[in-house]
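Thread title: Can someone regenerate the structure for this chain?

I was given the following input by a collaborator and told the matching structure tokens would be attached. They weren't. Posting the sequence so someone can regenerate them.
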Amino acid sequence: MPGRKKQIADALNAWFTREARELPWRGRPGEIDPWAVLVSEFMLQQTQVERVLPRFLEWMERWPRPSALAAEAPGEAVRAWGRLGYPRRALWLHRAAAEIARDHRDRVPRDADALLGLTGVGPYTARAVTSFAYGERHPVVDTNTRRVIARLVHGLAAAGPPRASDLADMEALLPEEPDEARLFNAAAMELGAVLCTARTPGCGDCPLADWCEWRGAGYPDNAPSGRAKQAAFAGSDRQVRGRIMALLRQSELPVSRADALAAASEGGVRTEDQPRRALDSLVADGLLVEHDGVYQLP
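Best answer:
Regenerated them for you:
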């Protein structure tokens, strides 16, 4: 097993060094901006790289340090978030920036416990920042990594629902040397994103093909059951909320309740109370502020 582990790590890291996409939050050890890593992790949650890139570049040009973002009103972060989706992430990132500026001398903390104390930072994000920004040896597992491990180690066509053993599976593959481990974490994600994809895996070009249990078994159709079906976006509360947020992002002035409800209804709704429910939920989430019957970003 130790020999196989090293062969896998060497092959994957060599492939990543040659083939990795050039992404602005990546870099060589010692040249990586931890704030850029943190921003990218917030933006990349459930969002494709192609959608994140332009927003990330605009964000970092405008707010190159946490204190720069913290000095702005929260609504500016929501406005700059654009159509990335799940705009509460913008509010959480703004709050995290204020906490970093106030409590950590404007420097993203290196310690995992300190990272977990920041608004919007959970165990995955904490491990990702400590690994990618600071080169600490921690297993980092996202959806793409889980699919790679399912095929490579378990011979399964798909990963199925998240399991408590996912981190242990990654830990078993992770090189001992921290810089190699950092590279391996990123490489496994990259492999799942560009080659070991869900629907059309490029197995012929995979650097781990010789060790892949799924390939060795003849690519069986044995995906685990229980995979949750994603709800349709069309007509959903998310879509209706998005219509209201688009109106508020474009407006420099407060918007009346009537105009907000009209925007929510454009394109149709599922029920009569959906626009009102969507508007009220945005206020409850802190994404909009209501005063004297008009609404604006916080």
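The chain has 15 helices and three strands.
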